[in-house]
Hints:
Elements: H1 18-27, H2 38-49, E1 56-62, H3 68-73, E2 77-84, H4 87-96, E3 103-107, E4 119-125, H5 136-145, E5 147-158, H6 166-174, E6 179-186, E7 190-197
Parallel strand pairs: 1-2, 1-4, 2-3, 4-5
Antiparallel strand pairs: 5-7, 6-7
Amino acid sequence: MMPDAADAEAPRTGMISPEGLNSLYATTQDPWDYTTSWYELRKRQITVACLPEERYRRCYEPGCSIGELTKVLAPRCAELLATDGAATAVQLAREATQGLGHVRVEHAVLPQELPGGSFDLIVLSELLYFFPDEHLPGLVDVIAGRLASDGDLVAVHCNAMESCAGAGVHRFLFAHPRLVPLTHHQDEGFALDVFRRAQG
């Protein structure tokens, strides 16, 4: 189900810059309580449970933070590229995924440092609201362009703050002509949507 237009009233200006993220991680290594929060654990479990395919060849997870979701995605993927714009987060994610030879964690700032090639799974978790509304159509377009034909895109974002409600940022995905909605989950905590790239 497409988000209601009422979810998108005032344009947002984005949240934290890459510099601000680096400062945040310098203060605390787990600023969103990924390792201890029931909300985060439950969200990861539901995200992975909603993946339409049992296995994926190549997965891309931008904004991976300290790698907690990365670890849960890893068993479902033959190859997984996780990136983040904060250097400290990248180091922590590398430590979290140590020993997983099919997982790469790299420093990359979006949208200028998108990876090459195509992916049959792209996971956007708590990422899109970091960008101003005016930049999101272009960002969604280039990310969708990295999605293989019949590939899946998963978006999951919190509903806790009105300024970054998941339904509000997901409207840019619903508006993309090449993304076909497959699954929708919404509760008081977060919105989760799964899309498949249309053939052709």
